[in-house]
Amino acid sequence: MANYVFGDIDGVEEGLNFKDRSALREAEIHRAPMAGIDGNPQVGASSIILNGGYVDDFDLGEEIVYTGHGGNDPNTKKQIKDQSWNATGNKALIVSEMHGLPVRVTRGFRHKSSFSPSAGYSYGGLYYVENHFEETGKDGFKICRYRLVKEKPMINISQSNVFSISNGNTETIRVPTTTLRIVRDTVLSRQIKELYDYTCQICQTQISAQGIKYAEGAHIRPLGKPHNGTDTLGNLICLCPNHHVMLDKGVFAIREDLMLIGIDGEINLHKEHILDTDNFEYHHEHIYRK
Ligand SMILES: [Zn+2]
């Protein structure tokens, strides 16, 4: 099985042009030779290509509504039957959404957008799948759709010579966007979530959407400056989104005996999971506010 790489590929900057699909494949941006979605339901989707395959796609630059695969006639591009959420690539994109995995986006010359190159393929950077939904497409069949939002603002395309604006629109389209709350998966957070079977260690909630489970790996002592918490199993717990936000906002703290301060409850601890209680203390002192 292919070992998928998620996120940036060394040496490939946003805006870089590739002459064809094999060049994209060689650069390891998108390795599937034909499919628009590169990935599988086990690991998620690492990359997508927009290249005019579906009439329903739309592209505002930093926001994309992408149509899943299946059900179209390869010659006319018309939808001739319903798409399925269980199709390999479609499921893979839901996995990317549920695990907060970055998806590389590449635009091809056939994709109708002012962000598309006039020839070949242009790498557009990293996006996150914000949500997925079902619609009836322009041709009258069910389509699987995904809203993707760019990780970082777009580079100024009007000054970039790799793009050719064919429809005369040289303005970068900016639209109001909602703030994304994406909790990215790391190797360790995935491990902790699996240990608890995606069940919140406080309220025992297990969220499952279309068979894909969702929980969040929460750092007790926050990562990064000025807190400098560690990304280790001793500093990670498996929480539902509510309890994660409450932990981060200091609504509750955790006592050494695992009872909660500020709200009722306790941390349910797996016997193989050893927490570093110094992190509880740090969180209590610096983050928890009654
Ligand atoms: Zn919870």
Bound molecules: zinc ion
**What share of residues are in beta strands?**
15-25%
**Helix/strand structural class:** alpha+beta
Radius of gyration: 22 Å
Distance between the termini: 50 Å
Helix share bin: 10-25%
Assembly state = single chain
Largest sheet: 8 strands, mixed
How are the secondary structure elements laid out?
Layout: E1 17-18, H1 21-26, E2 37-40, E3 44-50, E4 58-59, E5 63-67, H2 88-98, E6 103-108, E7 121-136, E8 142-150, H3 187-195, E9 207-209, E10 212-214, E11 216-219, E12 236-239, H4 241-248, E13 253-254, E14 260-261, H5 277-286
Parallel strand pairs: 3-6
Antiparallel strand pairs: 1-7, 2-3, 4-5, 5-8, 6-7, 7-8, 9-10, 11-12, 13-14
Q: How would you describe what is shown here?
A:
The structure is a single chain. This protein is an alpha+beta fold and 290 residues long. The chain has 5 helices and 14 strands. Strands 1, 2, 3, 4, 5, 6, 7 and 8 form an 8-stranded mixed sheet that branches. Strands 9-10 form a two-stranded antiparallel sheet. Strand 13 and strand 14 form a beta hairpin. The chain is elongated, with a radius of gyration of 22 Å. Bound molecules: zinc ion (ZN).
Provide keyphrases for this structure:
single chain, 290 residues, alpha+beta, eight-stranded mixed beta sheet, two-stranded antiparallel ribbon, 24% strand, elongated, binds zinc ion
Short description:
Helix content is 15%, strand content 24%. By secondary structure, the chain is an alpha+beta fold.
